[in-house]
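Human: We require from you a protein record containing the residue sequence and its fold in token form, and nothing else.

Assistant:
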Amino acid sequence: MVSAQTMIVNATGLHARPASLFVSEAKKFASAITIKNVDKDTAPVNAKSIMMILAAGLGTGTKIEIACDGEDEQAALDALIALIDGGFGE
């Protein structure tokens, strides 16, 4: 299992289009992937579920932790962190 923390930097947070992009990227990997709001210390949610991501309310400036567990865990973590740190192209 690998994990890393980062901050959501795009203007709209992890809502609608960015959440859809995030879930699409997460689904490319076989690993189990979760995302957690570190600021509120909430329970991790399934990063492959658009409904769970939207319900988590991850806005701009939120510190998050992504955890990946499986055969391609490091590649999954690297790809998702890059997507978030890149601001989803916004």
